[in-house]
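User: Predict the complex with pyridoxal-5'-phosphate.
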Amino acid sequence: MTEQIRTLIQTRIRQDIQSMHAYAVQDSTGMVKLDAMENPHRLPAALQAHLGQRLGALAFNRYPNSRVNDLRQALANYAHMPDGFDIMLGNGSDELIALLALACDVPGAAILSPLPGFVMYAMSAQLQGLQFIGVPLTADFELDEAAMLAAIAEHKPAITYLAYPNNPTANLWNAAAISRIIAACADVGGLVVLDDAGIQVTAQGWFMVRAVAMVFDRCLQADRNRAQFSRII
Ligand SMILES: Cc1ncc(COP(=O)(O)O)c(C=O)c1O
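Assistant: Here is the predicted structure with pyridoxal-5'-phosphate placed in the model:
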């Protein structure tokens, strides 16, 4: 790096960004790669060919137009989304996590999640200048429910993240504990994000549908109680 570029970085890039570390992707050559919540299986050859044809025929020279709404509608139908709700699409859930931090960046706002947890929860808070509260898991990687409830009551986080299954510990949380955490977040007027990025590797996807419905129910209840939100989307 030249002296000129070093000076440019030092004067123009935020100090806290300069002291961050890059996300390290471990070399997995010759190994069975099970981390990063990836699907180990490639697409079947026939599907690869079919997708190639479909993608090749798309108008990549244009910005997407209303087709995105067709996709949102198709996903809503697939998920049996109730009336009055909506779906937001992102370039991967990392983008949605970053946008949520941006959207909730009001003075004093905090983001809370169990630790160890998905790195982007803390990083999105740090990048956006929000406080991050990490609540350590128990020694056997379970939610420390009492500590979570105490931290929610103390910090009143704008967003509480629960990854289901958790990354990096890969376990599913206790359903009753999740319900109580959602209720506690609703009591302090906070949002709960149940992040099911790794749900395809579990056999308990059904639970999420119920839990998400519950989150919205609690949020809408917070809405009625506190008149803070006109509609949670
Ligand atoms: C819990 C969790 N959320 C979000 C993500 C990011 O997913 P995406 O590839 O959709 O950005 C990951 C990726 O590993 C994850 O484990």
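The mean pLDDT is 83.
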